[in-house]
Amino acid sequence: MLLSQKVQQNKSVLKVALDHGKASGVIKPHDRVVVCQKVGDASVVKIIELED
């Protein structure tokens, strides 16, 4: 799998997870979410601040 396809797949999975969190009420607008992802051989930690 090409790296760009893998990155796009990770973004899709992240979007589904965030949408689920919003729908279940766990995540609210303007919350910060800590995301731990495995990208290739690297581990990545992101802090995402949600908008509306």
Automatic annotation (TrEMBL):
This is Pyruvate kinase C-terminal domain-containing protein. It comes from Gossypium raimondii (Peruvian cotton).
